Amino acid sequence: MDAEELTRRYNAGERYFPATDLSKTKLIGAYLPGINLWGADLSRANLAKAKLWGADLSRANLAKANLTRANLSGVKLQEANLRGAKLNLSKLYGADLTGACYDDSTSFSQGFDPISRNMKKL
Asked: Which superkingdom heads the taxonomic lineage of this protein's source (predicted)?
């Protein structure tokens, strides 16, 4: 699926896109609050400035994804793969990061503590 099809289906009222392959997709500034992308492949996707509050990204592969300045407030990211992801200046208020994995190449906003959010380092 590409960004255009996802946006079209979302705008038509569809919200459930589990295990969808969106790797390398450009969704810069996308407005997708409440979308369900459980288990989706978003590796290397560009989600900079995306508005995803209330979304379900549990078990999603976000390896090397760009989430800079994305609004991830209230997002479910349980067991998501965030290795190498860019989360600089992203809003993570109320986000559930339990079991989400990260590594030394994952970039967070200054002062963000992944351990206090129950994330696991790989």
From this structure: Bacteria
CA atoms of 21 and 35, how far apart (whole Å): 15
Domain that residue 18 falls in: 1-122
pLDDT in tens, 85-112: 999 999 999 999 999 999 999 999 999 9
CA distance 86 to 67: 5
Rounded Cα–Cα distance for residues 91 and 71 (Å): 5
Tokens 């900079």 identify what position?
48
User: What is the Cα–Cα distance from 121 to 106, expressed in whole angstroms?
Assistant: 10
Number of domains into which the chain is organized: 1
CATH code of the domain covering residue 88: 2.160.20.80
User: pLDDT tens digit string along 47-89?
Assistant: 999 999 999 999 999 999 999 999 999 999 999 999 999 999 9
